[in-house]
Amino acid sequence: MGLRQRRYSKEEMAQRGQELYEVGIRQQIEVGNEGKIVAIDIETGEYEVGDSVMAATDRLFERQPDAQPWTLRIGHSAVYHLVRGV
């Protein structure tokens, strides 16, 4: 497998990925999948749901080898939540 190249800026990926999620994907997957990860190909709109970023993106790449994936945690505003130690 060759090195995958990003063809869009982070901002473009986030904007397109969020748009695809809100317009059509969210209604199909949110119930029963809260907390899981969705990987969305921002070029085709194809997506995969998994328990981790790797699981979701690996399945997406199996179907769409040239995918430009954007990921999010279903039902949350971010994939990861960072907590500062005390």
Description of the molecule:
- With 86 residues, the chain is α+β, with helices and mostly antiparallel strands.
- It has one domain (10-73).
- Helices cover 36% and strands 16% of the residues.
- It contains two helices and three strands; from the N terminus they run αββαβ.
- It has helices at 10-29, 53-63, and strands at residues 37-41, 47-50, 69-73.
- A three-stranded antiparallel beta sheet has the order 2-1-3, with helices on both faces.
Keywords:
single chain; alpha+beta; 3-stranded antiparallel beta sheet; globular; 86 residues
Oligomer: single chain
Largest sheet, strands/sense/barrel: 3 strands, antiparallel
- For the secondary structure, the number of strands is 3
Secondary-structure element pattern, one letter each: HEEHE
Q: Total domains, how many?
A: 1
Principal-axis shape equals globular
Radius of gyration: 13 Å
Residue fraction in strands: 15-25%
Which class do the helix and strand fractions yield?
alpha+beta
Low-confidence stretches: none
Strand ordering within the main sheet: 2-1-3
What is this structure's SSE topology?
Layout: H1 10-29, E1 37-41, E2 47-50, H2 53-63, E3 69-73
Antiparallel strand pairs: 1-2, 1-3
Could you provide a short overview of the structure?
This protein has two helices and three strands. It has 86 residues and is an alpha+beta fold. The protein has one domain.
